[in-house]
Amino acid sequence: MRRVLALGAFIFAIAAHAAEEESAVPAADAAHGKQIFQTICAHCHNTTHETSPVGAPGLAGVTKRRSLDWIEHWITNPEKFAASDPTAKKL
What is the mean pLDDT of the chain? Predict the structure, then answer.
């Protein structure tokens, strides 16, 4: 289940990146990623540049701050990734 959620969030990140780059992403993929984001991620994160009330970073422009590979690793196993990545350790 965690892998499915991570995949959905990753698809949302890719869709956001694609929108920033003005490239096409299948609507069904973007809609599925958005649904997962709203169900799981939006409890802590928002889609602005502002830090949320619970201290989670806003995700607007995240693909300009982090690579898609970095985002995938963070979403799929944040504890393990934070142990080995200097940027993730600071979060």
Answer: 81
